[in-house]
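dude i think i finally got it to work??
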Amino acid sequence: MADYYRDLARLLRDEGFEFKRSGRGDHEIWWNPRTGLSVTVDRKIKSRHTANGVLKEAGLKKAF
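look at this
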């Protein structure tokens, strides 16, 4: 089964997001200083739908 975290983190970084802090469990908070948007990312994303949902929340296009 695929793990989407690495690719998702790269896409977020490319769009100006920065790792802000650890969240609860396996989650991380990523923040974009330009837009002020924050998104929660699970370090163990196994579903492309969930990965695309994070991108949508961040205001980005689907990638998976």
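The chain has a mean pLDDT of 95.
im so relieved honestly
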